[in-house]
Amino acid sequence: MIQGNGSDRAAHQAKGGRVALIGCGFVADLYLRSFAVHPEVTVIAVHDRDSARMAAFAAHWGVQPADSLAALLARLTPGDVVLNLTNPDAHYEINRACLEAGHHVYCEKPLAMEMTQAQALHDLATARGLMLVSAPCSVLGEAAQVLLSAVRRGVAGVPRLVYAELDDGFIPQAPFAKWQSESGAPWPHADEFAVGCTLEHAGYYLSWLIAMFGPVERVVGASAEVLPDKPGATGTPDFSVATLFFAQGPVARLTCSIAAPHDHRIRVIGDDGVLQVKEAWSNAAAVRFYRRFVLRRRLMEHPFGRRLRPRAASHPKVGRWGAASMNFALGPVEMLAALAEGRACRLTNAMALHLTEVTLAIQNAGCDAGAHVMQSTCEPMEAASWA
Q: Are 331 and 351 in contact (CB under 8 A)?
């Protein structure tokens, strides 16, 4: 339900959970498209410091604007969730304000731009008994959960090595000035280039890997700016590569760039073959198993992988828009379900902190950082029952 003025709170809570959005930019439209397939969730208010942008967004989606952050927070009750969809530089400040006001927070990536800030947010949420969850939530999606289940069931045997790619093509030559969201927000290229593809995108596969194998123990990374002529370039890395050593599990290599040709594959290489997903940004992407065998003295993987499917219906799907076909509401919906059912959220505060530390270690690696020994930790995720 993408509307509601908060006049009948008991009725809203009986029907389902409530969320409020801070930040009405490009990504906010993707969230509203996703909430459209979750009628059990009510969007009670939205706020943006740009009043014109907020008005256009609110009018397009039929939601109630709040003139200030304080006004938005005043509409919330215990058990509501705030979505922080602001620019990354504002994440720490907004997250802290929401937590101090006593509200659960779902934050777009990254959780904060510095590890000390992320740790402070984690500690504050823990002290207040609040959930602090970090995007992306695609780890709860069908493709990720089917892959997670296949790894746990040993479909490919013992996993030994993972290759994960998040290359988006030569983005500076793309017509990004023409990219607009449904409500008319331009793609924020200045922020995207200033923040960098590692902080923006690494989480899509890092969250899958942490869910599958648990905490990373050591990160050996390198990052560089290989396209210095981008509009508004500030020296932020636009390429990174990291080798991840898990406390228990295989070794993984993750690459991010906005220079190399589009490649969003993840391959889990095991004793008996390879599990592969070709697209991180599609919840319904095929998970395939390529069995390894010997043919006439030649070792090879089967050229036609066997598709692995969920055992039951998974979650509501959202059609493709732009580069993504993802249900961006899965994270907030999971938080609300956990609150309603009195259970732990599958996206934990510890996972949010750990994901942030790994991502920042890769982003800040440069050419000579060497190994980063992780200070945070978290538990792996149980696969969904339908997977």
A: no
The total of other beta-carbon atoms located within 10 Å of residue 108's CB is: 24
Structure token pair of residue 198: 């590692």
DSSP secondary structure string for all residues of 24-50: -SHHHHHHHHHHTT-TT-EEEEEE-SS
- One-letter amino acid of 323: A
* Segment 4-46, tens digit of pLDDT: 333 333 333 334 699 999 999 999 999 999 999 999 999 999 9
Return the closest-CA partner of residue 252 out of 291, 295, 218.
Answer: 218
> Which domains, ranges and CATH numbers included, belong to the chain?
17-134 (3.40.50.720), 143-310+348-373 (3.30.360.10)
Tell me the two tokens of residue 162.
Answer: 């993972």
Residue 231 has pLDDT above 50, yes or no: yes
Token pair of 20 as six digits: 């409020």
pLDDT of residue 241: 98
Distance CA 234, CA 193 (A): 8
pLDDT in tens, 46-58: 999 999 999 999 9
Residue 154 phi/psi, 5-degree rounding, is 70, 30
Count CB neighbours of 178 within 10 A: 8
Q: Please check whether residue 109 is in contact with residue 134, taking contact to mean a CB–CB distance below 8 angstroms.
A: yes
Residue with tokens 């200045």: 190
The rounded distance, in Å, linking the Cα atoms of 189 and 81 is 28
DSSP 8-state code for residue 172: G
3-state secondary structure of 336: helix
Q: Print the SS3 string covering 127-166.
A: HHCCCEEECCCHHHCHHHHHHHHHHHCCCCCCEEEEEEEE
188: preceding bond cis by omega (within 30 degrees): no
Residue appearing with tokens 């076909």? 325
